[in-house]
Amino acid sequence: MAKRMTIIQGHPDAQARHFCHALADEYAKGAEDGGHEVRRIEVATLDFPFLRTKEDFEKGTPPESIRQAQDAIKWADHLVILYPLWLGSMPALLKAFLEQLLRPGFAFEYQKSGGMAKKLLTGKSARIVVTMGMPAFVYRWIFFAHSLKSLRRNTLWFCGIGPIRSTIIGSIEGMDEKQRLGWLDEMRGLG
Questions:
Q1: What is the pTM of this model?
Q2: CATH number at residue 49
Q3: Residue 144 has what pLDDT?
Q4: Integer Cα distance of 188 and 66 in angstroms
Q5: CA dihedral 125, 132, 178, 27 (to 10 degrees)
Q6: How many domains is the chain built from?
């Protein structure tokens, strides 16, 4: 059955192409070749401010670029989020985008009685793809993949998204052409 996919490419550099861009391209190609519909969000090209107060997060009006991204998320059955690991986490621009995007009333609702928030993005699955300079096993087993786990559990699952799968691509600076092509093929296959 054909799916609707939204790919969020979270590398913050809009001036150059990076491996995250190529991975997103191949995922999209694989999905389209498989008969799926694909929309893309290039976070680095969007214009939005950082949220600075609780009031802005809970009651502020999202800018147009974020409203369009929310429409792409609502439309999708499956989300793909790609980003490079910077200082052990996602780049600040991607985090700011997710804070703007996943606001109360769109992604979840606070309950008047307290307790767990109502999840508003149920029925959607996700794949998180993280690239990094360190070996993937070091990130997973020594650093416990904390950034990935936080995005999976504290953000996506909190909003109702699941199942959530992940792909960790390590040692990218030391990869040869054959290894890079292997990962691009892998992304095409996942699409």
A1: 0.94
A2: 3.40.50.360
A3: 87
A4: 27
A5: 20
A6: 1
